[in-house]
Amino acid sequence: MANASKKSPRSAARPKAPKRRRRGVRRRRAAWLAIGLAALGLALLSCLWVWALLPGPGSGKAVHVRIPASIDARGLGELLANHELIRSPTLFRFYLRLVRPSVDVIPGGHLLNDAQSPRGLVQRLARLANRPSAKVTVPEGFQHVQIGARLEQLEICQASAFAGAVHSKALLRELDIRGPSAEGLLFPATYELPTDSDPAAVVRAMVKVFRKRFARVAAGQPGALEGYRSKRGWGEHELTTLASIVEREATHADERPRIAGVYLNRLDDPEFRPLRRLQADPTAAYGCVLLGASLSSCAGYTGKVTPQMLRDAANPYNTYAHSGLPPGPIANPGEGALRAVLAPEKSEFLFFVARGDGRHTFSRTLEDHQRATTQRPD
């Protein structure tokens, strides 16, 4: 009887089987739930990703937006929605937090487009390296105002912000630029620049190219820089200033060295009157471009130099009223104008006047100059 009452090992294990099965069922349910949640999360992320690729609500108009420092995802979404750049600030907030959580938006001014996708907006706002770029060509003789307008048209940066960077004292110190602005050192070339760029970065890129090209031109004229330094105390600033005037005066490349020589003669000839005055029309015009309505002689300026402008001593760039070089370059010269200043043509000419065909008549005496002026076509 005692032996019959003993339970076999197999019968003793049977009550535990249902418990193991329950645990297995719970594990399988948890696994399926996790898979379901993961699939749901992936689907939501996929939907957000697709939404972020859709075009914006606008027609392709450029929009200037200033992003405050320490703005959060909610505030950014509302700000962009207020500027009609996105349709849903809520979806934009989720996109930032779930899909692009590591992206840091850069505070300050941004140039955006109301037809951009949310993904494109984020690329610009964070100034990511993979954002689209645009090619901009700066012609020889362009002024910073013209460059800024072209940059804004291509959505590289805002024109007013570019002008601010050109005149930024901190940036001028950083780049070791003398004078009131970086005008003259924004080298004429073709650049490929990211859209919504920092204007200071654009200025740095152009000045870098200028310095490289200037060094190349100077290397091709051995001793020219040293000669200017020893005779006149001139360096990069003065040479670029004169080259910018030559660039604005000369239409044909072969006349550049002669025009450069004429201006140097005016500075050096003790008989030239008024003494040491360059008398260059484009310098007075640049004062109107730069200072505008603050000069009474520039009221209504449309690009044509008037006698009133040439008499205005309040215009610091007017070389009819002020001796020597103007305060700084009046445009951005190319290699040809820089080379002309470093290798000017030696002559006795003190005057030149446009003939009407893009070329000039050069004279030594005022009488000859006046005769050439009366003979030129209207």
Brief description of this entry?
The protein is mainly α and 378 residues long.
Strand content: 5-15%
Order the strands across the largest sheet as they lie in space.
1-2
- Give the uncertain stretches in residue-range form: none
Beta strands, count: 6
The largest sheet, given as strand count, sense and whether it forms a barrel, is:
2 strands, antiparallel
Describe what this molecule looks like in 3D.
The chain has 378 residues and is mainly α. It is 50% helix and 8% strand. The protein is built from 17 helices and six strands. The chain has helices at residues 2-5, 9-13, 17-52, 73-82, 89-99, 118-125, 144-153, 159-166, 169-174, 199-219, 224-232, 236-249, 256-268, 281-291, 307-311, 335-342, 366-375; strands at 62-67, 108-113, 133-137, 190-194, 351-354, 360-363. The chain has a two-stranded antiparallel ribbon. Strands 3-4 form a two-stranded antiparallel sheet. A hairpin with a 5-residue loop joins strand 5 (351-354) and strand 6. The longest helix has 36 residues, at 17-52. The protein is elongated. The chain starts with a helix and ends with a helix. The mean pLDDT is 91.
Which descriptors would you attach to this protein?
17 helices, 378 residues, mainly alpha
SSE layout:
Layout: H1 2-5, H2 9-13, H3 17-52, E1 62-67, H4 73-82, H5 89-99, E2 108-113, H6 118-125, E3 133-137, H7 144-153, H8 159-166, H9 169-174, E4 190-194, H10 199-219, H11 224-232, H12 236-249, H13 256-268, H14 281-291, H15 307-311, H16 335-342, E5 351-354, E6 360-363, H17 366-375
Antiparallel strand pairs: 1-2, 3-4, 5-6
Helix pairs in contact: 3-5, 4-5, 7-8, 8-10, 10-16, 12-13, 12-16, 13-16
